[in-house]
Amino acid sequence: MSIGIYKAGLEDLQEILQLQYLSYQSEAALFGSRDIPPLKQTLDEVIAEYNNGIVLKMTVDDVIVGSIRAKERNGTVYIGKLMVHPDYRRNGYGTKLLTEIEKYFPDKRYELFTSTRSTDNIRLYRNLGYKMFDRKAVTDELQFVYMEKGC
Predict the structure, then answer these.
(1) Residues 79-91, buried b or exposed e (16+ Cβ, 10 A)?
(2) Number of domains in the chain
(3) Residue numbers of the domain that contains 19
């Protein structure tokens, strides 16, 4: 089994978007609704994120099983869309992706957010040194917790 993490190319974005739709089903299930932004994102929006930052892909035997995105603005790196195919979870791949994207932006402040119901995500981020610094209600059902690490 050959595992690698690489910068994604434009040609990878459709496959990454399909992985996103699959990976975020578990998030949608936490709320009993498929009405969450990652499940409504379009290919054009993913291309715009690609053009404004970095998109990494994780492959196992040349199949994309994970991805993460980041962009830097004013000294802060905003990390988002960390995803791992459901069949490949609990193997440390999320940790590997997050650690790898940080290497592209050394000595910066990193920020990310997740739902307060995403306890596995929060545990992963805490284990990698992220600390909560804010919480915002999006709807009555949905609250985001904002986490940071670094400078």
Answers:
(1) bbbbbbbeebbee
(2) 1
(3) 3-106
Structure-block tokens of residue 9: 């190319």
> Is 146 strand, coil or helix?
strand
The amino acid at residue 95 is T
Q: CATH number, domain at 60?
A: 3.40.630.30
pLDDT tens sequence across 1-60: 899 999 999 999 999 999 999 999 988 887 777 777 889 999 999 999 999 999 999 999
- Cα(112)–Cα(79) distance, rounded to whole angstroms? 5
User: What b-and-e string marks burial along 96-109, b requiring 16 or more CB atoms within 10 Å of the CB?
Assistant: bbbeebbeebeebe
Give the whole-number percent of the chain exceeding pLDDT 90.
77
pTM: 0.92
Residue 143 lies in a domain: no
Phi, psi of 90, rounded to the nearest 5 degrees: 70, 30
Binning the chain into helix, strand and coil, the percentages to the nearest 5 are: 40, 35, 25
